[in-house]
Amino acid sequence: MALFGWTGKGLEVDLTNSEWKRTTLSEEACRHFLGGRGLAVNLISEEMDPQADPLAAEASLVFAAGPLTGTRTPTSGRHAVAAKSPLTGTIFDANSGGRFGTELKRAGLDYILLRGRAPSPVVLTIRDEEIEIEPAEDLWGLNCTDTLAKMNNFASACCIGRAAENGALLAGIMNDGHSLAGRGGLGAVMANKNLKAIAISGSGKPRIANIERFDGALEEINRLIVASPVASKGLSNYGTPALVNLINYMRIMPTANFRDSFFKQAEDLSGETIADTYARYRAPCHACPIGCKHSEKGSRLPLPEYETIAMLGPDCSNPSLETVVEANRLCNDYGLDTISVGATLACYSEEEGRTLSKEEILSLIRQIGEGEGLGAELGKGSLQFSGRHNRDDLSMSVKGLELPGYDPRGALGMALGYATSNRGGCHLRAYMIGPEIFGKPKLIDRLSWSGKAGLVAIFQNFFAAVDSLVVCKFLTFSVGEEELADALSAATGIAFSTEDLLKVGERIWNAERLFNLGAGLDSEDDTLPQRFFSESTEAGLKPLQKDEFANALRQYYACRGWDEEGQPSTEKLTELGLTRG
After folding, report:
1. Please, are residues 220 and 483 in contact by the beta-carbon 8 Å criterion?
2. Which of 166, 209, 490, 540 would staple 214 via disulfide (CB 3.0–4.6 Å)?
3. What three-state secondary structure class fits 230?
């Protein structure tokens, strides 16, 4: 049966034997997992033993687009990358913009599944039907900027930098010069396969089932974007650094490794200050009318986003915008996750009992990228670093993934979202900052646990579906599941209600949970660093109460249809069409 929206095709690559084959994607898999994150998670779950070493040759790595990727849907120029994370031991997907996902679809593919390890460095190249696995010894040892420059005869490319080659578990996969599938160490997985880059150009385009209905759905989505001050003004004009002053004002800015929650010099790092200091231009991802990414005119180098500023600025007690900008550029070139790098440097700073100088911050990032000296140790992340120094209390991480730019003591929904995230300390699994701080879709009491368990589960389901379509989460500041379900239905010709969309998200969430349980994680991992239960901040945040948190966690499990140990019930799995491994 011919599919609309999806191409119905995949590419499976055996790097050990330098072989590849095209595969067919079933309509059932499309309906149940959509694409992007969901499809990638399903493929990894089918391919891998959850107990397997994520850096073993047989470990799988998946790049996947969604049914809306490559269409005119606003913010749909995205793709997902998934593997078992060498940093967290969890199943892990990272989401990236640019145009790599679009070219994947234009080349007639919904996904690429990579197995094995090449005997020597290689590049995978794709031009529509023409697929090659080519030697890349000349590229090995180059950083991302130079590598991607050599791929400029393709419409898009992704690659790893020296950090991944040198074993850093904080290394991601860079594409199109400014977009990074950054978290969880997926770059280390790619490096371990001796795969330096994937370059791709396509000339096709996805087929739309109902053009008239699709155009109507996109017209409504674009109208809502324009009507949203957050999307059309704040993010468009200042990018995500527009959050700096607001998050600091709300007293939830990570400061000095989360010992405080207000940074006196935050204004010096704000979006407004960046706009006054640097000549900028918008550098949007493909099909994005919002354009939150900004680059510096002249150098054309990306300027830092909010999470980068928060973790390499206040969390490191660093007030220097110049240092944050340079640190961001170093991380981009080496292919490093700025959130985990900043958090790990903050952890090291506290362990040392002193504030790092601007020069030390930049020097340590270079050492992480080169795998040299102290950098080789820091490149394994804050949890491993603090453990080696018998200071586990200094790692501000959940399931091994460093927390981003929001103090959970001042946003209780975010606290529960961090703790229950399948990939570890992540704000994007359930972006509770939306309702708790921005009032999107409506403002709720950020310091109350009431109703948070059910709301976190709903947000997690919704964003799992969003990551599988694949569209940007910033689109959800303007539109909801109804508009997305309408666009999906028109594109694919398959009727998806809002309930159907959320059910897909719930299925994906439970599939991830099953993988993690099989990998050895359990309810004891659904928690937060002890600091948040025992320490207040000078800015006024009080410690979380353990009994209240435990009660909210029990309510969350009940909302999910799980038992008190966080195990999905047989009834829930049957309802979702999943089986226990």
Report:
1. yes
2. 490
3. helix
Q: Where are the beta strands (DSSP E) in 236-390?
A: 280-282, 294-296
- pLDDT on residue 232: 81
**Dihedral sign for Cα atoms in the order 438, 442, 446, 452:** negative
> What are 417-449's pLDDT values in tens digits?
999 999 999 999 999 999 999 998 899 999 999
79-84 and 9-14 as β-strands: parallel, antiparallel, unpaired? Answer: unpaired
Q: Give the whole-angstrom CA distance, residue 428 versus residue 112.
A: 24
Positive or negative, the Cα torsion across 28, 32, 37, 40?
negative
For 211, residues 6+ apart whose C-beta sits below 8 A from its C-beta are none
Count Cβ atoms within 10 A of the Cβ of residue 522 and give its class: 0-12 exposed, 13-18 middle, 19 or more buried. Answer: exposed
Question: Residue 58: what residue type?
Answer: E
Taking the C-alpha atoms of residue 280 and residue 376, their distance in angstroms, rounded to an integer, is 35
Q: What does the alpha-carbon distance between residue 539 and residue 257 come to, in Å, rounded to a whole number?
A: 14
- Which helix (H) or strand (E) segment holds residue 60: the answer is none
Let me know: does 407 contact 252? Beta carbons within 8 Å: yes
**What does pLDDT average to over the chain?**
97
CA gap 129, 148 in Å, rounded: 22
The answer to whether residue 422 is domain-embedded is no
Report the pLDDT value the prediction gives residue 533, as an integer from 0 to 100. 98
Surface-to-core class of residue 542, CB atoms within 10 Å of its CB (0-12 exposed, 13-18 middle, 19+ buried): exposed
Task: Say whether pLDDT at 178 is over 90.
Answer: no
How much is the pLDDT for 1?
A: 58
| 255 closest CA partner among 538, 4, 19 | 538
In a domain, 107, yes or no: yes
The answer to whether residue 346 sits within a structural domain is no
> Residue range 40-69: average pLDDT?
97
Quickly tell me which residue has 């007293």 as its tokens.
251
Report, as an integer, the average pLDDT of 519-540: 98
Q: Cβ distance 180 to 186 under 8 Å?
A: no
- Evaluate whether 469 touches 34 at the Cβ level (below 8 Å): yes
Of 344, 339, 354, residue with least CA distance to 394: 344
The pLDDT assigned to 2 comes to: 81
State how far the Cα of 161 lies from the Cα of 366, in Å rounded to an integer: 12
Q: Classify 482 as helix, strand or coil.
A: helix
Least confident interval from 339-343, 435-439, 482-486, 490-494: 435-439
Residues of the domain holding 32: 9-201
Residue 192 near residue 16, CB atoms below 8 Å:
no
Of 483, 470, 493, 476, give the one whose Cα is nearest residue 68: 470
Residue 440 has a pLDDT of: 86
pLDDT value of residue 60: 98
Nearest-angstrom CA–CA distance, 345 and 500:
43
400 falls within a domain: no
Helix (H) or strand (E) holding 29: helix 27-33
**Range scoring the smallest mean pLDDT among 150-159, 296-305, 519-528, 549-558:** 296-305
The CATH number of the domain holding residue 162 is 3.60.9.10
d(CA 271, CA 235): 10
Domain count within the chain: 1
Nearest to 337 by CA among 401, 387, 398: 401
Q: What is the pLDDT averaged over residues 196-220? A: 97
Nearest 10 degrees: Cα torsion 393, 398, 402, 408: -90
Tokens of 164: 């991944």
